């Protein structure tokens, strides 16, 4: 494996970490209003991800920075061609982050309700748009000989891309419901567990259809069938475990499904990074999109030092905040919160 191929794998790993970790807190935000009955419920839901949501977002920053440094041609073409979808995602993430910080600043129901809607929309929009973006990467776009993307916005809304958007939306919603059942006790745990069991059925159908379509229509590698099989096994485990209320098994299985989906997507792309559907000769590949070996060598040493630190720190954070939460531990509002981002509790 040469350095460009190694960095293709590293970039895929960063996206895997982002989608698995941010996937459940997107799901939590998406389900906050359906699962809550009052403000205490909503604060309980927010507090399940309060200590970790901002750390989860670090992975997308690292993934984007790694793509920019390791594959500048890929970064330039993708971010210019997908400018509108990525701008929408960025705006949603900003709105969501601000909402976490601001909802507890004023003790007023109307104020909190507005920011709660911002959290909800800021979770739904990226869940939909990431699926749309990755599906279009796999399907391919129209590229000129100098690697300029010329696909129109309507070209990005193909049936396959819309199925990809539905897949990520359902996967993240199910992942989030399972996480809430895992992190809470009492009535909230029951509600989240029931919803997770309901969501597992359409998620299995839609995600299974997307995986098979991807393999049959877009993958040139037999080995990516392994990712399809692993995803299928994970979906079955999610179905069984959510009905048995085994949240730990269900959460591990849903994380495995998302990880297998990322492997399938990047495995299908290889050795391309952006296939050209109008002329394969115009495709961006790992070889023609990568930086120099000198740049990649420096990046490899830096990554080898920093990545374990990031993983270790995040693992420690999850360990510290591993206990279940209940509505009884959420105190009434009392002025400004002591810690923004976890709603003061």
What do these coordinates show?
With 345 residues, the chain is mainly alpha-helical. It has one domain (3-323). It is built from twelve helices and two strands, in the order H-H-H-H-H-H-H-H-H-H-E-E-H-H. Strands 1-2 form a two-stranded antiparallel ribbon. The longest helix is centred in the first third of the chain and has 33 residues, at 3-35. It is globular, with a radius of gyration of 20 Å. GO terms for molecular function: electron transfer activity; metal ion binding; oxidoreductase activity, acting on diphenols and related substances as donors, oxygen as acceptor. One of its GO terms (cellular component) is plasma membrane.
Write the layout of secondary structure elements.
Blueprint: H1 3-35, H2 39-49, H3 53-70, H4 72-81, H5 83-102, H6 109-139, H7 159-183, H8 187-217, H9 225-243, H10 247-269, E1 272-274, E2 284-285, H11 286-289, H12 293-320
Antiparallel strand pairs: 1-2
Helix pairs in contact: 1-2, 1-3, 1-6, 1-7, 1-10, 3-4, 3-12, 5-6, 6-7, 6-10, 7-8, 7-10, 8-9, 8-10, 9-10
């Amino acid at each position: 494996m040469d350095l460009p191929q190694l960095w293709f794998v590293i970039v895929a790993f960063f996206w895997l970490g982002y989608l698995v970790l941010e996937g459940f807190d997107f799901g939590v935000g998406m389900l906050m209003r359906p699962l809550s009955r009052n403000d205490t419920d909503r604060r309980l839901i927010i507090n399940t991800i309060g200590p970790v949501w901002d750390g989860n977002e670090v992975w997308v920053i690292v993934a984007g920075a790694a793509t920019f440094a390791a594959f500048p041609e890929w970064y330039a073409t993708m971010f210019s061609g997908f400018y509108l979808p990525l701008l929408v995602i960025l705006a949603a993430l900003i709105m969501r982050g601000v909402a976490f910080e601001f909802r507890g600043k004023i003790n007023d129901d109307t104020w909190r309700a507005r920011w709660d809607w911002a959290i909800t929309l800021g979770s739904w929009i990226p869940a939909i748009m990431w699926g749309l973006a990755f599906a279009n990467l796999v399907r391919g776009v129209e590229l000129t000989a100098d690697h300029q993307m010329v696909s129109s916005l309507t070209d990005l809304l193909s049936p396959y891309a819309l199925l990809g958007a539905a897949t990520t939306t359902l996967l993240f919603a199910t992942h989030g419901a399972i996480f809430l059942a895992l992190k809470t006790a009492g009535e909230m745990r029951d509600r989240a567990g029931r919803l997770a069991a309901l969501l597992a059925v359409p998620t299995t159908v839609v995600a299974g259809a997307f995986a098979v379509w991807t393999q049959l229509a877009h993958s040139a590698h037999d080995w990516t069938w392994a990712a399809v099989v692993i995803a299928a096994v994970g979906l079955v485990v999610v179905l069984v475990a959510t009905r048995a209320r085994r949240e730990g098994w269900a959460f591990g299985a849903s994380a495995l499904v998302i990880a297998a989906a990322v492997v399938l997507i990047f495995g299908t792309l290889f050795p391309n990074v952006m296939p050209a559907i109008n002329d394969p000769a115009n495709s961006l590949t790992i070889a023609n999109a990568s930086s120099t070996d000198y740049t990649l060598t420096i990046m490899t040493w830096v990554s080898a030092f920093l990545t374990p630190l990031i993983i270790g720190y995040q693992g420690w954070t999850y360990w510290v905040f591993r206990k279940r939460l209940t509505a009884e531990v959420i105190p009434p509002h009392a002025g400004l919160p002591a810690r923004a981002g976890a709603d003061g509790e």
